[in-house]
Amino acid sequence: MQGKNIYYETLHNAYGQYFEIGQVLFEQKTSQWHLSIFENPRFGRVMALNGAIQTTENDEFVYHEMLTHVPLLAHGQAQKVLIIGGGDGGMLRQVVKHKNLTNITMVEIDAAVVDMCKTYFPQHSQGAFDDPRVNLVIADGLEFVKNCTEKFDVIISDCTDPVGPGEVLFSSEFYQNCKRCLTEEGIFVAQNGVAFMQPEELQNTVRRMNQYVKECTFYMAAVPTYIGGSMAFAWATDNVQARQLDLATLTARFEQADIETRYYTPAVHQASFALPAFVEQALQSAMSITE
Ligand code: SAM
Questions:
Q1: Which of the listed residues 160, 177, 226 should we mutate to test ligand 1's pocket, taking the one with most ligand atoms within 8 A of CB?
Q2: Domain 60-290 falls under CATH 3.40.50.150
Q3: 2.30.140.10, 2.40.30.260, 3.40.50.410, 2.60.120.280: which CATH number matches 6-56?
Q4: Ligand 1, residues at Cβ distance < 6 Å
Q5: pLDDT tens per residue, the chain (291 residues)?
Q6: What is the rounded CA–CA span in Å between residue 213 and residue 278?
Q7: Contact call for residues 169 and 141 (beta carbons, < 8 A)
Q8: pTM value > 0.90
Q9: Which of helix, strand or coil describes residue 223?
């Protein structure tokens, strides 16, 4: 790396990844974050907030496809979706592909992230912010759900790690209010960290969420730049049939939706809920501790 400009991710102690910086495109202290956007020869454009990689051009499809198509195809009749966070627009791009949706609300705390990502990550949103069904709200996600009187069929929490403004989106209060804002068959999903590196994240989620829903579990996918193994996605719903759908039903819905994907397939959808033993053990031990 002699003479190269290097970005070191500082999310984890004593372990991390680095990115050769081809060019720094943007660097700023926004109202909420230290925001960096730079070019990397392998991952394309990379965004980091406070030293933690948020998204890259070349691997964002894994995360955004799995956090949208899994709940939406499992639900099958969703009309209204709420996205908390998601400032880069990648989640929104995948959600707007679902033509049957009538209303998509996105609540992002930092307008600067949206503005910067529209400029530097146009491939993430690909115009999704202009979809007439989209209502972008600049606010704290917890405050929004606390005061919300609407109901949503799918709620997607696409937030940062539980630090700084992101911390409240992993609280019992947030989960309780999200459950209140779900329709009867509604499904809540959330990014819940890389299970091997951050087991306490999914343990906290199951301990806090379990009291509000009939079913709280996780599904997983490996996102290359969320280092240390597969990422866990929280799944919480009273609609316990949604996770039991057979492959034929999922395949029929996927074909009906007519959505092009690079990671999601109905078989991957089903398989993603099969949890490694260490994750199951972490969840069992979480349930034996009360907060
Ligand atoms: N894929 C990333 C990950 O898994 O860490 C998340 C990407 S997205 C950029 C995260 C977004 O959550 C950021 O735009 C950040 O501003 C937003 N965010 C963090 N805390 C928030 C809060 N309390 N309310 C609303 N948005 C929040």
A1: 160
A2: yes
A3: 2.30.140.10
A4: 32, 54-55, 63, 84-88, 107-110, 113, 140-142, 158-161, 165-166, 168-169, 191
A5: 567 899 999 999 999 999 999 999 999 988 888 989 999 999 999 999 999 999 999 999 999 999 999 999 999 999 999 999 999 999 999 999 999 999 999 999 999 999 999 999 999 999 999 999 999 999 999 999 999 999 999 999 999 999 889 999 999 999 999 999 999 999 999 999 999 999 999 999 999 999 999 999 999 999 999 999 999 999 999 999 999 999 999 999 999 999 999 999 999 999 999 999 999 999 999 988 755
A6: 23
A7: yes
A8: yes
A9: coil
